[in-house]
Each structure stands twice: as C-alpha cells, then as structure tokens.
Amino acid sequence: MFLLLDTNLIGVYYCEMINLSKINSVSKNNFLSLMRSYEKNYKTIFELIDLNLICPNNISKKFESKSKYSNKKLLLTIESVSNHTALIRFSYNLFSNNTYINFVDIKIYFDSKQIEVLNTNSFSQNNFNKKIQNFHNLRLSKWYKSYFLSIWLDNCVKNGYSFDVNTTV
Q1: Mean pLDDT of 128-149
Q2: d(Cα 163, Cα 141) in Å, to the nearest integer?
Q3: What are the backbone dihedrals phi and psi of residue 85, each rounded to the nearest 5 degrees, phi first?
Q4: Which terminus of the chain is less hemmed in, N or C, by CB atoms within 10 Å?
Q5: Which residues contact 113 (CB under 8 A, 6 or more apart)?
Q6: Domain that holds residue 129
Q7: Would residue 6 count as lying in a domain?
Q8: Looking at the domain assignment, is residue 158 inside a domain?
C-alpha cells in the first residue's frame, strides 16, 4: 500500500516538474517574452543613462560613473548613433584604475524602444556561434543574453551608477 502511494506521489511530482519545465522553457523561448525583455531593458537603461547623452555629438566620447558602494568605475562609450538606433559599450576598470575591460556592447532601437545585447565578455562568441545550429537556439540564446542584461542593468542602478553630461571623461 505504502509503496504504491509513494510511486503515485513520485509520478505526480515528475508530471508537475515536467509541466513546470515546459512553462519555463516556453517563456524563455517565446518571441513575445524576448521582445518584452528587450522593452524592459530599454526602460531600465534610461534609469542608468541620460537619454540626451546618446546623440551624434557624443560619438566616441567616454562617460565615467563610480559606484556608490565600491571603487569600481563603469565607462560608457557612445559608438554610433543614427535616427533609429545607437550602439553603446560599457567597460569596467576591474583590475586597474586606468585600464578598462569591455564588458557589454548594446544596440538601442529608438522606434521600438528595445535594446539588444550584441556582444559580452560573459559569452564566448566563437564557441557560442559554433553551438547555435538553428533558430530555436538563437532565440533562446538572445533571451538569456537579454535576461543577463536585465539583471546587470538593475544591479548598476542599485549600485548608484549613472551617466549624464557631467560624467564626461
């Protein structure tokens, strides 16, 4: 009797875990979820950066911000700006005050109010591209990159980083 009950409970447990993992994987691999993530990151990035900084006059300019809680500095570089998009780069001075390491390259889409991670040191691009075989994996990888960006941007805002015209280097 007890053996049968335990087997049934284990079966129910596994069925529920499978259902939960399906829900979880669908939300990560859903195009709508990816777009929502891009939109959330767009809102968050402008808590970190004054929108007026992203203009053609600031291309190649560097802006520096220091955390309220540590000596680490975050460097923002405006790479390019057009009417509809902008490319920006964030770098950290992890090991030296004057040496910055590129951390993440981001593309901003002004019309759709979305941002996308183009490249980051957290993902090895060469190995990463070899593993991507089909659209499903590509979309899932974009979701994970966007999720990473969401967590990172929230962390930057919580640590007091901010960029405006007065932070030019």
Answers
A1: 68
A2: 29
A3: -140, 165
A4: N
A5: 39, 42, 43
A6: 31-167
A7: no
A8: yes
Ramachandran region of residue 155, left (φ > 0), alpha (ψ -120 to 50) or beta?
alpha
* Amino acid type, 60: S
Non-local (6+) Cβ contacts of 153 within 8 A are 41, 44, 45, 47, 48
- What domain count does the chain have? 1
What's the token pair of residue 74? 């975050």
List the structure tokens of 40. 């959330």
* Residue 128, domain member (yes or no): yes
Task: Answer whether residue 8 is part of any domain.
Answer: no
pLDDT in tens, 76-122: 999 999 999 999 999 988 776 778 888 889 999 999 999 998 887 75
Pairwise CA distance, residues 112 & 114, whole Å: 6
pLDDT in tens, 16-74: 444 444 444 435 557 788 888 889 999 999 999 999 999 999 999 999 998 888 878 88
C-alpha distances (whole Å) from 106 to each of 40, 117, 144, 145, 161 are 14, 5, 14, 11, 17
* Geometric angle at alpha carbon 102, from 101 and 107, rounded to 5°: 165
